[in-house]
Amino acid sequence: MKKIRAAAWAASALVTASALTGTLTGPAAATSGKASEPASTAQKPAGALATATDGVTHEENDRVPEGSIWTQHYFPSSDGSGTELHADVLLPEKLPKGKRVPVILSAGAYFGHSGQIAPEDWKHTGPSNRFQDFIEGTDLFDQGYAFVMVDTRGFGGSTGCLDFGGPGDQADIKAAIDWSASRPWSTGAVGMYGKSFDALTGLIGNNLDQDALKAVVAQEPVWDNHRLIHSGGVPLSRVVTTATTYNAIASLPQMPDDDARYLANSRYEQSHPECLTENLAGYRITDPDHAYWTARDAAKKAKGTDTPLFFTQGFIEDNTKPEGMQEFLANHKGPERGWVGQWDHVRGNDRTEDGRLAMGREGWFKETLSFYDQYLKGTEPEVRHPAYAVEDNTGAWRAQKTWPVVERSATLRLGGGSYVDDGGTSAMRALDPSGRTKPPKAAKPSGKGDLENASSSVPTVPKGLAEAQVKRQKAGEATSSFFKWSKPVDQATRITGTPRLSMTAKGEGNVMVKLYDVAKDGTAVMFDEQVSRLDSDRPTLDLKSTDWTLKAGHTLAVEIGSVQTGDWLDTPSKQKVKIKDARLELALDDPADDVATGGERSPYLDTYLSQYTVQLPAGPSAFTVPPVHDDR
Questions:
Q1: How far apart are CA 413 and CA 186, in angstroms?
Q2: What angle do CA 394, 399, 400 make, to 5 degrees?
Q3: Spatial distance between the Cα atoms of 62 and 2, rounded to a whole number of angstroms
Q4: In angstroms, what CA-CA distances link 166 with 37, 161, 171, 255, 330?
Q5: How far apart are CA 376 and CA 310, in angstroms?
Q6: Contact call for residues 114 and 120 (beta carbons, < 8 A)
């Protein structure tokens, strides 16, 4: 990987802004070659500059992938705004004249020539290496595909104000699909590929319902932009860090030897400073029904769409979380393929430092290429892959025709309780002074340590916090939260889909809900959580989508209270909040019906368990998780 050296003016933004320090992507995890020789000593062909008509090969510019020929192009966005888009095109080097090939398109913020998130140590210009792993892993050019990288507005060589997936970006993606399909070297069939933010652009492409778009591959996408930044009206820290980081990316200086048109376009923000100001302002809007956010709700906009979709999603990742995922899939009516399981913000081909696959499943590039061959070339797959390959918290993989598989829906009446919305101060005070309030070191992520797999900014939960809360609750004290416990389940029961909690609330402030899997010895794992403002008397929270199996004899515990953990920027009301008639809606599945498929335990699962395992003393049973099948 090229060594990143942050420019001084951007350093503070990129240090504090984990946008996305791994939240919304960075350099490819499995590349690249050595840096080019300095222009003063290299022979002239080493840094040759491509134009629309003069293509450049790897031998003429070592930033061009082997086996391809690079050209650069400019074309207008589709909204009539005058925004000009830049594209780097990589065609098979030996493509015969008049031969047409299908196109794989990636569009987004990370394809600037100087670097993806900060300036890298390139010695001369060339196309981005963001998806060099994909190009090499699929042998893309020998397989007869073109690869097109388009800078959406505000980034790289494109003009316009950055738009965070809004109407402007949507117009750019429409234009990029149409442009790619209409080239003389294109068959007219386009597929999209990406991870994180440029996986979101793939979902946007699906939602545009373009005839030319035949397939989308989206790894760890953003399903709904509002839920990435706010939870039920409570902002996360990325309300600042993500916006700041994207502003920094949009302002990146590009390579001195880029063409004059590219350089002029890249400086658009210098003459339009309002772009950066407006971007910051948009993120701060809390209302999910505001026009800013409804225009960026990919999950809702997917209704009735049918582009074949292959995606990945980690249930326990804390960057692009599975929020809005089930809604998107319910609205999407086309063919679906999914790898879903217990990993962090990684690519399907990423490996840990010790060589294990980060998702635990072999064959990412083979399956991806087969998916594209089927829908862009009409080639029947040689291998029959399951529609969904799913890993639950036991580390076991199963094949399913869809996700979630729901064998029983249950509404559990939890009852009520009360808490003080103090942000956890009373809970923290309850911890003994022996050092247990000192957070342990953050666990090392399973990725390679580059920006795409950077450490999370979420603070570690102090040891003993949940245990101390339970003891105070049993003593009858008013504290930062209260717990409700189920009876132990008689048989292994999987909680899948998107849990939903509704309640009657008296008092103002915030509420945080957590679900725990509690073993017989009191060892508990927090496996789902959500936060909201108490803006109504009957608030309803959709938690993150999950796929978690309670072993026989285990208990489900629910914690309801103030926002005590995580990276939410909440403002505690200091008021006592009374909760009545809390109801938890669950989708249940029987693991006994599982059909096994290939896959190993994802390495991050053990990292997560080490971070979120606590001691939770048993309490009185307030509800029952029903068996999936009453006759068993």
A1: 58
A2: 110
A3: 13
A4: 40, 11, 9, 28, 22
A5: 13
A6: yes
Contact call for residues 147 and 68 (beta carbons, < 8 A): yes
75 within 8 A of 83, measured Cβ to Cβ: no
Instruction: Give the separation between CA 27 and CA 154, rounded to whole angstroms.
Output: 19
d(CA 391, CA 314): 9
For residue 489, give the DSSP letter. Answer: P
Phi, psi for 614 (deg, rounded to 5): -135, 170
Q: Which of 425, 451, 415, 437 is nearest to 583 (CA)?
A: 415
3-state secondary structure of 570: coil
| 570 or 440, which is more confident | 570
Helix (H) or strand (E) holding 575: none
Rounded to an integer, the average pLDDT of 542-550 is 98
**What mean pLDDT comes out for the span 50-55?**
98
Q: Which 3 state secondary structure label does DSSP give 13?
A: helix
Indicate left, alpha or beta for 473 from its phi (over 0: left) and psi (-120 to 50: alpha): alpha
**What is the token pair recorded at 602?**
């994802």
Contact between 130 and 28 (Cβ < 8 Å):
yes
User: pLDDT exceeding 90 applies to what percent of the chain?
Assistant: 82
Comparing C-alpha atoms, which of 431, 442, 425 is closest to residue 466? 431
Identity of the residue numbered 39: A
Distances from the Cα of 341 to the Cα of 317, 322, 603, angstroms = 10, 11, 11
**Residue 230: strand, helix, or coil:** strand
What's the rounded Cα separation, in Å, for the pair 435 and 416? 33
Q: Quote the tokens at residue 576.
A: 């006592």
Alpha carbon 439 to chain centroid, angstroms: 26
Q: Which of 548, 544, 539 is nearest to 577 (CA)?
A: 539
Is it the case that residue 441 has pLDDT exceeding 80? no
CB-side neighbour CA atoms (13 Å) of 313:
28
Length of the chain: 632
CA dist 105 to 337, 352, 461, Å?
19, 27, 41
Helix axes 238-250, 274-283, angle to 10 degrees: 160
Do 177 and 205 form a contact (C-beta atoms < 8 A)? yes
Query: Both tokens of residue 460?
Result: 């570690």
Query: Which residue intervals of 7-146 are DSSP H helices?
Result: 8-16, 132-138
Residue 315, both tokens = 């249930």
**Token pair in block for residue 502:** 């509704």
The two tokens of residue 346 are: 């990684």
CA 602/CA 529 separation, integer angstroms? 21
> In this model, does residue 137 exceed pLDDT 80?
yes
In sequence order, what are the residues at sequence separation of 6 or more whose Cβ sits closer than 8 angstroms to the Cβ of residue 492? 549, 550, 551, 552, 590, 591, 592
Q: Establish how many alpha carbons lie within 13 A of residue 8's alpha carbon, considering only the half-sphere containing its beta carbon.
A: 0
Residue 542: φ, ψ to 5° = -90, 120
